[in-house]
Amino acid sequence: MPNDINFLDSVLIIPNNVNDLDSKSYCNLIENLLEIEIRDEMNYINKIKNHKTIFDNFNYFTETLCNPVKNVLEYLHNK
Description:
- The longest helix is centred in the middle third of the chain and has 17 residues, at 23-39.
- This protein has four helices and no strands.
- The radius of gyration is 16 Å and the shape is flat.
- The chain has one domain.
- The protein has helices at residues 23-39, 41-48, 51-56, 63-78.
- With 79 residues, it is mainly α.
- The model has no long low-confidence stretch (mean pLDDT 76).
């Protein structure tokens, strides 16, 4: 990653299932967080401004970035 970009400034961190909420309550919590995030236009603009630079710097052929794809394929295969 370029040294001048703080990756954490460009993402929305969603909490793990907080206090073992049921699925519906957890979905409501996440939906509320997303709505708050999107409502603030400047926040939204600040979050996306670095995305092109961040994605241009990914090496899509590394093992680390392939893991999520492998996990999804394994999940689908096992179903």
